[in-house]
Inverse folding.
């Protein structure tokens, strides 16, 4: 697979460690896919954050949402999902930490598009989203 651009959306207050692990593991040569992480690397003022994140997401092929147990309070994640939808960028989720099928999902993320953290399943999800939205 070519190197699609993936934006990693996560709850910075609760799941930053999982984001670091996810991106790090994705760089392992045994991982069945690769992608560029275009997430913001630093906190920004709100208006600047929105402008930069909208631009980054619009240049990506997909957004992967790392779904932790505290998603109900992750307002930035909901905004990122909305930015993706507005730019016709496909979105899918990956459960992290102790989150699972009974965990609250952020608004805009479908349960049937949220999977466990399994590299083969994630590779399949990326293959699927590369045929959707703006990637068609």
């Amino acid at each position: 697979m070519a190197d699609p651009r993936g934006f990693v959306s996560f709850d910075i207050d609760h799941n930053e460690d999982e984001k670091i692990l996810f991106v790090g593991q994705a760089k392992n040569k045994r991982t069945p896919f690769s992608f560029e992480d275009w997430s913001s690397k630093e906190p920004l003022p709100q208006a600047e954050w929105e402008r930069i994140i909208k631009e980054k997401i619009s240049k990506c092929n997909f957004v992967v949402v790392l779904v932790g147990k505290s998603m109900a309070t992750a307002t930035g994640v909901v905004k990122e999902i909305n930015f993706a939808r507005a730019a016709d960028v496909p979105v899918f989720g990956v459960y992290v930490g102790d989150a699972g099928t009974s965990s609250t999902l952020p608004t805009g993320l479908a349960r049937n598009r949220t999977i466990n953290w399994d590299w083969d399943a994630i590779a399949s999800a990326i293959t699927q989203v590369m045929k959707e939205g703006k990637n068609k």
